[in-house]
Design goal:
- The protein is an alpha+beta fold and 106 residues long.
- Helix content is 26%, strand content 13%.
- The protein contains 2 helices and 3 strands.
- A hairpin with a 3-residue loop joins β1 and β2.
- The chain is globular, with a radius of gyration of 14 Å.
- One of its GO terms (molecular function) is catalytic activity.
């Protein structure tokens, strides 16, 4: 879909937690359908999608809490969400994105 990830090496200095499924996907130890990838993030199709095109944008650093995400990686994640969201919306002829949130009534 978007080929910016083709031919890029994954930096060795990214944190890795062998028990984390996302770290294992990033390390290519688990299969995934990659839609987009940069040095900072990867976007994959969800294996249990809520609807067609359901995509996860994952930072390549192992972070347990979003509040610990470095500003530059947060910015890269936001940019990827925008780019991938637009491409998926156009490809699926849908309008906009839905965000994951724990809030009710949103």
């Amino acid at each position: 879909m978007i080929n910016e990830h083709v031919g890029r090496d994954v930096p060795e200095d990214w944190g890795y937690d062998g028990g984390c499924s996302f770290c294992r996907i990033i390390a290519k130890e688990l299969p995934s359908a990659v839609l987009y990838e940069t040095d900072e993030v990867v976007a994959i199709l969800d294996i249990l999608p809520l609807r067609p095109g359901h995509t996860l944008v994952i930072p390549k650093v192992h972070i347990s809490h979003v509040t610990d995400l470095p500003a530059d990686i947060a910015a890269a994640t936001g940019a990827a969400v925008s780019k991938v969201g637009k491409a998926v919306s156009e490809g699926k002829s849908t309008r906009g994105l839905r965000r994951a949130t724990g809030a009710t009534g949103v």
